[in-house]
Every structure is written in structure tokens, then in C-alpha cells.
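Sample entry was shown:

___
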Amino acid sequence: MGAGRVCRGGPSSASPAGAAAGRSFPPLAASSSTSSAPSETASTSVTKTVNGSHHFKIAGYSLSKGIGVGKYIASESFSVGGFEWAIYFYPDGKSPEDGAAYVSLFIALASEGTDVRALFELTLVDQSGKGQDKVHTHFGRSLEGGPYTLKYRGSMWGYKRFFKRSALETSDYLKDDCLLVNCTVGVVQSHTEGPKIYTIPVPPSNMAKHTGQLLTSGKRTDIKFKVDGEVFPAHKVVLAARSPVFRAQLFGPMKDKNMTCIKIEDMEAPVFKALLHFMYWDELPDIEELTGVNTSWVSTLMAQHLLAAADRYALERLKLLCELKLCEDVAINTVANTLALAEQHHCYQLKTVCLKFVALPENLKGMYCISESIVYWFLGEAAR
């Protein structure tokens, strides 16, 4: 009969199973063992200026005199930072108390705006070429009070006594009865940048690699060049895109529709091969790989020939790369030819480097292989 007992109350303290079944547990979310650290975010406030300039020519200055104090000549309006601006020039000054003794110059907010903060620069240009401009500027210096604030449309910044009129009329700022005024405005803009929620790595451009593989593969070529006994296949459209000279030759009005092979005169095969390499890869080739020789003299010689070829086919970037390399590799045994090339192809920086190199006494003494007439020519050029 005892086996039928029913337990109506709480679990017996003597029963471990009963204790486990009746215990009250806190919610899992409140457990200290599962709490996480607080998340962190960040943002950045960025303040910068949006800059723009306007050039204002005031022609017939003498005719503007007598217009009246407080009356101005205005430039066309120009846009900077989402606002319109204008230059105001007062030939008889802005203030009656100055009695037309000064000219006044201001920059004005010419569109609707409230509390527009900006930096300004007003320049009266020295027309003698001496560079003695009269400049008033906020740019490039510390501003104790911060940028200037224009409260509303028509607000101005500038100088009532910008220049004494009697001094202006005898200065180099006035030429052919004209004044030149340059104005720069930098509108202050702020924005807040939050954390980026994406990361997209963008690989560098590989367009030159794909174009270069066209040359390497030799597929779908439609023109051949015969140079010093060697034949080089190429693609008309690539050459035309890179060189205006080839474009005129291959697609111009005087082109030969049946032309499949062009003979190149006055150029060696390795030079033309290097030229093609640049036109497809947009970089200089490995000279040792191209010629099988690794000497500075061969490298300089190739750069000299490539410079002439670049000028011939109007490849300005290649020409500059060659000029740079030749400037770095000026030597006693190559300077004569390099200088002649610099003169012929209008490479003025390279010419200067060569002349300075030759002018050094220790280099001049070492040039025993150069004829006396060339040495004197060098000296004459260096003295100019």
C-alpha cells in the first residue's frame, strides 16, 4: 500500500533528482559567462576648402576714373564651392572720407547664402615680368580668428585702401591702361565620415600586360615592318592609338589600302624592337635581354637611339624616359653624342646636364678623345 504514495508538495531535500528537477535557473542571457564586450565604432569630421580662381582684366582704367566714390566695376560672377562670387573694383575708392585717394578692391558673395565661411586671396599682377605682385591672402598662413564669414548675399571681403591711386598710376601694375586682378576663393566645407562597411581590394591596372601579350603572341597582326633585314609583325590599331605618326601613316587620307609591309630606314632592328615593346607594354624593355649585353655603354647607346626614335614617332613619354636615363648616365665617352642629341631633339634639361658635366675641369681633362673644336664648342655653350 505504501507504494501508492503521491508527493504533493515540493521536492524532498533528501532526493538529489528531485532537487535538480525543482531548482530555479536564471535566464541564459543574464549569465556572466556568455556576456560580450561592447562594440566600438568611430567617425571622423573632415573640414577642407573647395578652391577656385578667377582672372579679371580691367581695360581702360583711365576712363573709369571719376565714376564716383562708392561705385564699382564688377567682374563676371564665377562659381566656387556651390556659391557665386564676383570681384568689385572701385576706381574712386569705396569710402567718402578717403576722397578718391585710393582704389578699393573686394570679393563679394553674389548668390544667396548665410554664414558662408571662406578663405580669400586678391592679387594685383605686376605686368613688368618682375613678379612683384601685390598679394593679400588667407592661404598658407595661420588664421587666428579662422576663415572669414560672409553673413548674406552682397557681403564682401577686401580693402578700402587697396592701393594709393597716384602710386598705382605710375607703377608696373598698370600697363597699356589695363590692370590684371587674380582672385582665389576657398569655401570651407565640413562633413562627417563614418566607418566603411565594405572592403573591396582593387588590383592595379593590367591593361599594358594584356596589350603586351598581343605582341608576344603574334596573333591577328595585320602589318609588318622590315627593319635592317628583320621583320616585325604588329597591329595597326595599337600603333595608331599610341603614335600620331603611325596613325597618319596607317589610317590617314594618304594611306595605301594594300600596304602589308613597311620598310623602316635609318634604324637598327634592336631599336625598333625596343620601340614596339614600349608601344605595347608602356615601359622600357630589359636592354640586356634585348641585346644580350650588360654594360652601361650599351644601355646609354640604346637610350640615345630610342630617344631619336621616340621623337620621330611622337612618343613623348618614351622620349622623356630616355632623356631621364641619359641624364643619369652622362659619361666622358658618351657625353658628346648625348649633347648633340639633346640639341637636335630639343631636350633642354638633358643639354644643361651635359654642359655642366663637361664644364667640370676633371671631366674636360678626360675628354682626350674629343677633337679640339668640339671641346671649344662645349666651352662656348657652357659659357652662354
User: Anything to note?
Assistant: Residues 1-23, 28-33 have pLDDT under 50 and may be disordered.
